[in-house]
């Protein structure tokens, strides 16, 4: 589904990713862990097409298409979803309005008919129910006045409605208490743990992986993947830290 080969990039001329390679197949959940400044969020933003993240080398293909040849909205319509560490507020625009316009824009790009108002509300109720989010919350402006947990749950509702092929979730567990973490984890599993979908989880900690079991865990340090393994690798990192894997000098940096 997603193949990254020797990817390098730069922000304001500074190299961040330095030869990163990764392959994700349909039906798989991959977790990326690593110390601060390793390039985890940079990888997510680069794949999503955020401005300012310049690709300087390497390739990335998504379902056989050159990902970097697509504009951000084209990547989304092709089935790529990017979940943010800090979801933004959009005053004056209700969640329902935002979600319906987003979904129908993507359907139009794929040559599909838009959903009617009734069809959309039915879908929104179903996905909000998965995340324990009251429909009244979806009538409010996007993320305005929401707690950290509510923002993350609303974002997972968005993911459910858009129904992506690949979800890249950047520190979705950030700011969540134990109850919210369980709900969000269950939502990710219900929406994305399917044979034709895949997930790339970016996280600092093991705790999210207690609820969303990864097939593979990768350690990202100094702009490249330095170690890969199964779920047990996350437990090792939680227990022993990153120093033994990536070198004490890299963690200190």
Task: Walk me through what this model shows.
- The protein is of the alpha/beta class.
- The chain has a single domain, classed as Rossmann fold (3-Layer(aba) Sandwich).
- It has ten helices and twelve strands.
- The chain has helices spanning 40-48, 72-77, 95-109, 117-130, 135-138, 148-162, 178-192, 231-240, 243-246, 248-252, and strands at 2-11, 14-24, 29-33, 53-62, 65-66, 80-83, 90-94, 141-142, 166-170, 198-202, 216-221, 224-229.
- The strands form three sheets. A six-stranded mixed sheet has the order 6-9-10-3-11-12, sandwiched between helices. Strands 2-1-4-5 form a four-stranded antiparallel sheet. The protein has a two-stranded antiparallel ribbon with strand order 7-8.
- The chain is globular.
- The two termini are 33 Å apart.
User: Assembly type of the shown chains?
Assistant: single chain
Q: Secondary-structure element sequence?
A: EEEHEEHEEHHHEHEHEEEHHH
Whole-angstrom Rg: 18 Å
Strand content: 25-35%
Report on the biggest sheet: 6 strands, mixed
Our measurement of the CA-to-CA distance between the termini, rounded to an integer number of angstroms, reads 33 Å
Roughly how much helix do the residues carry, as a percent range? Answer: 25-40%
Fourth-level CATH superfamily = P-loop containing nucleotide triphosphate hydrolases
CATH class: Alpha Beta
CATH topology: Rossmann fold
Task: Count every beta strand, where a strand is a DSSP E run of 2 or more residues.
Answer: 12
Low-confidence runs of at least 5 consecutive residues: 248-253
Named at the architecture level, the CATH assignment is 3-Layer(aba) Sandwich
Structural class: alpha/beta
Widest sheet: strand order?
6-9-10-3-11-12
* Net shape: globular
Number of helices: 10
Number of domains: 1
């Amino acid at each position: 589904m997603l193949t990254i080969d020797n990817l390098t990039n730069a922000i304001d001329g500074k190299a961040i990713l330095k030869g990163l390679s990764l392959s994700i197949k349909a039906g798989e959940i991959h977790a990326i862990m690593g110390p601060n400044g390793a390039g985890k969020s940079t990888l997510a933003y680069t794949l999503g097409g955020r401005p300012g993240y310049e690709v300087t080398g390497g390739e990335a293909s998504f379902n056989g298409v050159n990902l970097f040849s697509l504009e951000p909205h084209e990547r989304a319509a092709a089935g790529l979803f990017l979940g943010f560490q800090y979801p933004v507020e959009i005053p004056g625009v209700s969640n329902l309005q935002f979600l319906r316009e987003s979904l129908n824009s993507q359907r139009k790009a794929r040559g599909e008919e838009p959903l009617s108002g009734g069809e959309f509300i039915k879908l929104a109720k179903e996905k909000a129910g998965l995340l324990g989010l009251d429909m009244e919350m979806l009538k409010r402006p996007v993320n305005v006045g929401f707690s950290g947990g509510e923002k993350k749950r609303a974002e997972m509702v968005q993911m459910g409605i858009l129904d992506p092929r690949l979800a890249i979730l950047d520190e979705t567990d950030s700011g969540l208490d134990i109850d919210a973490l369980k709900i969000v984890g269950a939502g990710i599993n219900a929406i994305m743990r399917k044979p034709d979908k895949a997930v790339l989880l970016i996280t600092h900690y093991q705790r999210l992986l207690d609820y969303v079991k990864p097939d593979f865990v990768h350690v990202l340090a100094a702009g490249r993947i330095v170690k890969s393994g199964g779920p047990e690798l996350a437990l090792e990192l939680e227990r022993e830290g990153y120093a033994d894997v990536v070198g004490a000098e890299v963690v200190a940096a």
